[in-house]
Amino acid sequence: MTYQFNCIGCPDVASLCEMIQRGRGIARKTFLRHVCRKSLLALEQALGYACHPSQGLTMAGDRHVGYFKSMYGGQLCVYITWSAIEYVFL
Prior knowledge:
Number of domains: 1
Strand content: 25-35%
Number of helices: 3
Number of strands: 5
Shape: globular
Largest sheet: 5 strands, antiparallel
Distance between the termini: 5 Å
Order of helices and strands: EHEHHEEE
């Protein structure tokens, strides 16, 4: 799965609301099995995370980031909740 959009630019708000209601928390390790690492790395850099703990805070080290699995518009998805914004991977 690759990063598609966040809740601010979501093309279908009804599907987004249903996705959030049905979302189940998952471990980062599980999340990583579902996503394209290159796509995730680009998002992490855009959000200002360091690539390595020696360089600063990484997304993996940020305990305020949540990882979830759900359905969006009938399609399996995983998403991150960061600063009350959902980032959806399809």
